[in-house]
Amino acid sequence: xxxxxxxxxxxxxxxxxxxxxxxxxxxxxxxxxxxxxxxxxxxxxxxxxxxxxxxxxxxxxxxxxxxxxxxxxxxxxxxxxxxxxxxxxxxxxxxxxxxxxxxxxxxxxxxxxxxxxxxxxxxxxxxxxxxxxxxxxxxxxxxxxxxxxxxxxxxxxxxxxxxxxxxxxxxxxxxxxxxxxxxxxxxxxxxxxxxxxxxxxxxxxxxxxxxxxxxxxxxxxxxxxxxxxxxxxxxxxxxxxxxxxxxxxxxxxxxxxxxxxxxxxxxxxxxxxxxxxxxxxxxxxxxxxxxxxxxxxxxxxxxxxxxxxxxxxxxxxxxxxxxxxxxxxxxxxxxxxxxxxxxxxxxxxxxxxxxxxxxxxxxxxxxxxxxxxxxxxxxxxxxxxxxxxxxxxxxxxxxxxxxxxxxxxxxxxxxxxxxxxxxxxxxxxxxxxxxxxxxxxxxxxxxxxxxxxxxxxxxxxxxxxx
Length: 466
Known about the structure:
By secondary structure, this protein is of the alpha/beta class. The protein is 40% helix and 13% strand.
């Protein structure tokens, strides 16, 4: 079973459908991999070995009896530990919720369970999806499988680490200012942040009500599209739900290629606003040539400076995060990790005027974004503009290096769909990336462009040496 832990969702699903693989074998391979490597990677904070094996036996029996639910039936899943899971400890990587056992599933957990996926465990995060990496938390920080001394990106740190190392076949993360795409970029996987409201956040511990997104973190965007087919859709339990009653068939929509697609290139984000390293810049330029060879038409486009997007996002995020955690910060601030406490308390320094002005500016930025993207199908820019920093660097300068050379906030401010895709490796063997985005609700175009790039570029055959 040495190769089973590296199967994509799509390939595992095909093998199960043909009777060449059973969910029992696949889950056992995942659990064996976790037992072997998790002490080194710290990707999982809870492993549900007995429950997962029981669910695998049930799935195997159903499939053999001709009752296969769909393409995700029997596929092992890891959930970021901010997704509530009925009867299963959900901590948000915090002492505040260390003994919390939810009485109900989050909508995403419930939908994936209904699709037949098998939960093998809960994945490390930064405390409440913001504070980390840190040593004063109940669980150690996840490390990067490509180089254990380096950062995974945050806050979906365990999702990035587990996916890259082949500990599990699929994961789900969350993204408020880059927490799906950052770890995906640093860990060399495919991370997709859907349009705001397309995937329900009900039962997921919030960081910022108006910026939070839930989305898949997988080895390929094809796999991400398969998960999106299961979780996308309206949900009355999430006030921000904006999904159409009948979401697209995302996996099927990947086909057809991108010949004739008009791709806008946002150069200022990686050439002017944040300077990419020489290797990261070359990876982006090489990726653009791949798109061109696939028949896409490239045009340069302009958006407001990245600093404007970052400032707008940061004010909204910090104000809303403080409002969420105000009671605990007032009554027991010591229970948070130091970095979490400092980040959350910064929201207390903001005035109502600051928050309202940020909301007003957000409206202006969104208008500019919509007007600019009306001229193209998708946009491409950098995601990580340098390889992952070391963990030691993060501990010394968490507020500076925690964001690193990353381009992500424009697509949270706008609520637009965006994906991080592996675009090569540095001389140290650390992943490099590009980012693809589109107008809100054009998720299909992002997935199709990313899938076409992955198929042509060939980076999905390379795995970390563990």
